[in-house]
Amino acid sequence: MSDKERMEELVRVLTEAARAYYAEDREIMPNVEYDRLYDELKELEEKTGTVLAGSPTMQVGYEAVDYLPKEKHASPMLSLAKTKSREELAGWLGTQEGLLSWKEDGLTVVLTYEGGELIKCVTRGNGEVGEVVTANARCFENLPLRIPYLGELVIRGEAVISYADFEKINAGIPEEGAKYKNPRNLCSGSVRQLDSSITAQRHVQVIIFSLVSAKGGGAEDERLSVSMEEQFRFLHEQGFTVVEHERVNAGNVVEAVGRFEKRITENEIPSDGLVLAYDDLAYAASLGRTAKFPRGAIAFKWADEMAETTLKEVEWNTTRTGLIYPVAVFEPVELEGTVVSRASVHNISIIKELALGIGDRIRVYKANMIIPQIAENLSRSNTLPIPEACPVCGGRTAIEKDADSEVLRCTNAGCPARQLKAYVHFVERDAMNIEGLSEATLEKMIAAGLLHEFADLYRLKREALLTLEGFQEKSADKLLAAVEKSRERTLQAVLNALGIPGVGAANARLIALHFDEDPEKLRAAGEEELAAIEGVGPVLASAIHEYMNDAEKADRMDALLSELKLQKSAAGQNAGEGKLKGKTFVITGSLLHFGSRSDLKALIEAGGGKVSGKVSSKTECLINNDAASTSTKNREAGELGVRIVTEDEFLAEYLPEVNV
User: Does 594 reside within a domain?
Assistant: First the structure.
């Protein structure tokens, strides 16, 4: 294992241990083991001169901004000329040697280092002007924040999200129509977030594919002016993840393309082709560029294997929120070595765009040779009826606007499909955590009339369970014990379990703590107070307020709460206690002594204080190391007469006993 691989492993292990300890109140390794691994990581960083993003030795705080500033690139980022002919690649090389590499499918970024430190990251944008996302780049999992090279280094890379992480993130989104369509879209949105803490949750990586310039590095700069392969070797030495590449010539490039192609379906990182570039940098530069393309490199695009088939039907599936998403079913065809007969159409907008109708002749392919998609509709009959009734309950449907797309929704709150999915969510680990209660068992309970509301789960009787298929005395007793155990949960868990639109485990915690984990205080809150909670905002505040003021939902929530024994969370137990009792703080900007805002927030909550995302007249002080900043929060603090203190000033005044 190389030093860089060991560093990546240590960062991953230490980050997981810290998250478990500080955010989840559980210890997965003894302190002495954590310290040993931390020291090992620090020694490797000193040895290599490289510090990876996310390293616990680098206390980089998350940042939130109101907008992403634009910046013009020093040199335009041109597209590459493209070909789908392997033989053309050989002719293009001629007598030259080149490097063949993956063309990763993500968001292109330009990174600038000075004095060994990452100082700037800008997205490709339109090629001329991009958006500055430096704070987000510091959260990329594999990007060095510090490198040995001390000159000015400008490089380009592709920010990407792996298929595995893409699937995990999508798995946490219950509504099919709200899921991300592909890793590229997810990555683009993750890199361009206004709040870098969200970027940090998305497991973004960056793969470097080009060295733009290197100045002031001494003799090393001359080494970098001759060969692209030597540039890649240098970048790898600096700690960067360099795009996988292979040296080729006209005689073996076609064979090399074949080797890359065989590995597409096993690749963890999405790619949409290959790039072939001349290794001789002087030769490549001598060719110049066209108005659109540089002449020193060319892109090879996979010729997607297409198949023509007939659309047989469209299945409509109802989720727990009532969203109904379509799946196209067509005559089976073979694509990329497997037989496919189904493809998600995602939403109503795509159905309209394709002008679908049963019996239409359609062309299908596998995006990135993996995900079945409809490429085009040859018939475009536009005759597919949009269901006016839910396929499960027969209730009325309605087309609604969701972001930029139209979606179909079942309006019947009592829809069995919605009920089942709602119960499945209710019993999940981050919700009520009823162990061993499967979707199949819940379906049997609903069919048998045992469940009409969430509280009914806590009224289950042994005799009733024994009437269900597959239940015997032992299994019934085991399930009842799990239900009994789940009576002791926090308000955070309950709020997540209720399935309030937009409320998940993370913001449920913030909401619960804001109201001292008292459900009655939450119910009495107005939309304005709800919107002021960090991570909520006006749209979610409206949904929460509507839920809490719905008479039927209120009765069901009362029934549920009467069956539970609400517990205080670790943070909640300290609320109203300690020297910070009754004080509310707001944190913004980069931090010096804490790995993230969450760490400082946890310290404040442990002292009995609260942390809000919005400055108000009740704010004790705004913690910002850049007091001269013209940020929105600083302006608001000035207008409201709220003090702005640095991190050191805050600790000295409020928590002098804390050693950081």
Answer: yes
Shared domain for 179 and 195, answered yes or no, is yes
Active site residues: 103
Residues 217-271 have pLDDT tens digits of 777 777 788 899 999 999 998 999 999 999 999 999 999 999 998 888 778 888 8
CA 497, 498, 502, 503: dihedral to nearest 10 degrees?
Answer: -50
- This model's pTM is above 0.70: no
DSSP secondary-structure letter at 64? B
DSSP assignment string, 274-339: EEEEESBHHHHHHT-B-SS-BTTEEEE------EEEEEEEEEEEE-TTSEEEEEEEEEEEEETTEE
Sheet bearing 619-623, strands edge to edge: 610-612, 584-587, 619-623, 643-645
* 8 A C-beta contact, residue 616 and residue 532: yes
Report the distance separating Cα 256 and Cα 158, nearest Å. 22
Element (H, E) at 510: helix 505-514
Single-letter code of the amino acid located at 521: K
Task: Kindly state whether residue 61 falls inside one of the protein's structural domains.
Answer: no
**Alpha carbon of 360 to those of 72, 363, 364, 373, 388: distances in Å?**
47, 10, 12, 15, 22
Task: Verify that 76 and 181 share a domain, yes or no.
Answer: yes
pLDDT tens digits, residue range 568-617?
875 555 554 567 888 889 888 777 777 667 678 878 877 778 887 778 88
Cα dihedral 440, 445, 447, 450, rounded to 10, equals: -170
